[in-house]
Specification:
The protein is α/β, with parallel strands linked by helices and 395 residues long. Helices cover 20% and strands 24% of the residues. It is built from ten helices and 17 strands. The strands form three sheets. It has a nine-stranded mixed β-sheet with strand order 2-1-17-16-14-3-12-13-15. A six-stranded antiparallel β-sheet has the order 5-6-7-10-9-8, with helices on both faces. Helix 9 packs across helix 10. The two termini are 35 Å apart.
């Protein structure tokens, strides 16, 4: 199936007034005190604070566990069941030089787009070895040797579990295309569980969180390199309470990658090109959405990734099951097709995620709410607090 683009993104919701500043990158900047960047998640998860945006003029402060009282029977929550993989790897070149690899996106079996350090020394043809290096590849006290070609069968014999080769550079991301050489029948995901680390965003510098705290409680589809953080606030007990009240749940999969966190670098945001991310909107989710709409219920996206998946799968005019890539860029002026309400965290300045939320309630109002959250000492970003935008907020 061909990938979905944002060629119809010129249509806008008539309920949100626009001005020329809405398309300027500088208009999405704000100042956040460093101490309000959350370094650790709250425990329990659903004790995070929740800023409830309920109309064009009102909002209230709540707690995430109060969500069942803030939604209505018949509403539908759509969640992203992707699971973060241990995408950060540390290895060495055959001569001994250290290498750091952050996997971004699987392009073919065992072939990945990745960010590498130091990139300038890892040109096409370079090889990287992971695991067992101190004993097998580099003996202590010996000088670093020039790079030598390493054959996969020799690696298996010497006990090295993983080797990779740089195939090419990727200009849009500044990354590299890497081919992993694995013994037949061995899964890269299995090896990553042994050798890799779950990556945290660069603004989290002093976290004591367990890796499982950076996963949603319903994650079961490995493939993401960052968590869909709006979903981190749910507990099994809260999900059960929501169901008991008649608030149903459905799932999509969007493997969070470079498209989600790649910075917007153009002064005119309308010229920004999103990097495609892999999405699956299954038939059963489409059917639940249609039933909810037919019965007068409201569709809530849990996070910006769910928003992009659902809206991307509806770009032909109506929501359809979809499996493939989506590079939809949502910013003020976008014509909404599926999503009515949103649960989301607080996002970085000048990010595409901030622009997406602005498309739902307006840039000026969103930035005013951010200032309120800062004044009230909300915690920001991945491990931070949340915002609930009710459908009435965009009317």
């Amino acid at each position: 199936m061909s990938k979905i683009t944002d060629e119809q993104n010129w249509k806008r919701s008539p309920s949100i007034p626009l001005d020329q500043s809405d398309w300027l990158l500088a208009a999405y900047d704000y100042q956040l005190p460093e101490q309000q960047i959350a370094q650790n998640p709250v425990v329990p998860r659903d004790s995070a604070r929740l800023l409830v945006v309920s109309s064009t003029a009102t909002h209230q402060h709540s707690i995430f566990r109060d969500l069942p009282n803030l939604l209505q029977p018949g509403d539908l929550l759509v969640l992203n069941n992707t699971r973060v993989i241990p995408a950060r790897l540390y290895g060495r070149k055959p001569g001994g030089a250290e290498v750091e690899v952050l996997l971004l996106e699987e392009q073919q079996p065992n072939r990945w787009l990745a960010l590498v350090k130091p990139g300038r020394r890892l040109k096409p043809g370079a090889q990287i070895l992971f695991g067992g290096l101190e004993e097998s590849a580099v003996q202590p006290g010996l000088p670093v040797q020039p790079d030598l070609p390493v054959q996969p069968d020799l690696l298996v014999q010497s006990g090295l579990p993983l080797a990779a080769e740089i195939l090419s550079t990727d200009e849009p991301t500044g990354g590299r295309i890497i081919q992993f050489n694995l013994p037949e029948g061995q899964s890269l995901y299995e090896v990553l569980e042994q050798l890799g680390q779950v990556p945290l965003p660069p603004y989290i510098t002093g976290s004591e969180a367990d890796p499982e705290q950076y996963q949603t409680v319903y994650s079961d589809r490995p493939g993401a390199v960052a968590a869909p953080t709006a979903g981190l606030h749910f507990t099994p007990e809260l999900l059960a309470q929501l169901k008991a009240k008649g608030i149903d749940q459905a799932f999509i999969t969007l493997h969070v990658g470079v498209g989600t966190f790649r910075p917007v670098e153009t002064d005119n945001i309308t010229t920004h090109q999103m990097h495609g991310e892999w999405v699956e909107v299954p038939p059963e989710t489409v059917e639940k959405i249609r039933q909810t709409q037919a019965q007068g219920g409201r569709i809530f996206a849990v996070g910006t990734t769910v928003t992009r998946a659902l809206e991307g799968a509806a770009q032909a005019g109506t929501l359809q099951p979809y499996r493939g890539k989506v590079d939809l860029f949502i910013y003020p002026g976008y014509q909404w097709r599926v999503v009515q309400g949103l649960i989301t965290n607080f996002h970085l300045p000048k990010s595409s995620l901030l622009m997406l939320v602005s498309a739902l309630i307006g840039r000026k109002r969103l930035l005013a709410l951010y200032q309120e959250a800062i004044a009230q000492n909300y915690r920001f970003y991945s491990f931070g607090d949340a915002m609930l935008i009710l459908p009435e907020a965009s009317i």
